[in-house]
Amino acid sequence: MRSFWHLEKGDFFDGIEECKEHFLHSAQRIELKKSDIVFFEGDAGGACFYVASGLLRIFCVTEAGKESTFFLRTAGEIFGLSEVLQDLPRKVSAQALAASVIFRLDRQAFDGLLSRNYALARRVITVMGSRLRYLGDSLSAQTCDVRHRLCRLLLALAHESLRDPAAWERPLALPVSLSQGQMAAMVCSTQPTVSETLHQLQDEGLIDIRGRCIAIRRPQALLAALEAPGDRA
Questions:
Q1: Contact status, residue 169 vs residue 218, Cβ threshold 8 Å
Q2: Where are the domains of the chain?
Q3: 144-227: same fold as 17-140?
Q4: 17-140: what CATH class?
Q5: What does the radius of gyration of the chain's CA atoms come to, in whole angstroms?
Q6: Per-residue pLDDT at 204 exceeds 80
Q7: For residue 163, with 0-12 CB atoms within 10 Å meaning exposed, 13-18 middle and 19 or more buried, which class applies?
Q8: Dist. CA 215–CA 171, nearest whole Å
Q9: What is the CA angle 49-55-61, rounded to 5?
């Protein structure tokens, strides 16, 4: 499904393993407990981070106190790139959603790696381009109803398991477990609305819900529901 190219992840260092060795050798290893904060909005942006294991969210809090989650970061991903490249204050916050291990590399060391490795610099550009595309799609989706945004989120969460075209026709359990409140923060809605919409999708035979575990019965059918004309907000 090439229309989802910008969701493809893999390990940030796939194909440039030598750069990964240098990164990890120079970086500080940090163990996080669930709910630990990596940085807050406004903190100095003098480092980037590689996720060795676990799950983190990238989010912000509005003046009214409402949280919006922009990204989830899983094993193999890197975050904090935008600010470290320009040494700017953080525009978002980062928090562990599960016990995690990350590696922190400061700006000077990361700049040195970039200056010596064209392939690494190209990878950074590619990843940032994909993330801009994701944010652009997310912004466009805000004109659609919650059902559309939720279907889109479910497919995005499952995308790494859908690289095999045949997987689009098989049941698939989401690889991450999120609360309905966390999902609401990712689709700019409320927990009650997300709960109601999830149960509607289950009644239609598109998903199965067991506690915080969600399985997509047939991803291709969910994609069809996503691409169907939706109500506008």
A1: yes
A2: 17-140, 144-227
A3: no
A4: mainly beta
A5: 18
A6: yes
A7: exposed
A8: 7
A9: 80
Q: What is the pLDDT of residue 7?
A: 52
Query: What is the pLDDT confidence band of residue 194, given thresholds at 50, 70 and 90?
Result: very high
Distance (Å) of CA 165 to CA 9, 173, 215, 222, 228:
16, 16, 18, 14, 21
Q: What is the band of 229 on the pLDDT scale with cuts at 50, 70, 90?
A: low
CATH assignment of 144-227, given 1.10.10.10, 2.120.10.10, 3.30.420.40, 3.90.1580.10?
1.10.10.10
Residue 4 to residue 1: CA distance in whole angstroms: 6
Within 10 A of 89 (CB to CB), how many other CB atoms are there?
13
**pLDDT higher for 19 or 85?**
19
Q: Which residue has the tokens 């969910």?
A: 222
Tell which phi-psi region holds residue 80, choosing left (phi > 0), alpha (psi between -120 and 50) or beta: left
Q: What pTM value is reported for the model? A: 0.78
Count of positions (residues) in the chain: 233
Say yes or no to pLDDT of 98 above 60: yes
Where would I find the beta strands (DSSP E) of 76-231?
A: 78-79, 93-96, 100-106, 172-173, 207-210, 213-216
Smallest Cα–Cα separation from 40: which of 65, 54, 59?
A: 59
Chain centroid, CA 33 distance in Å? 19
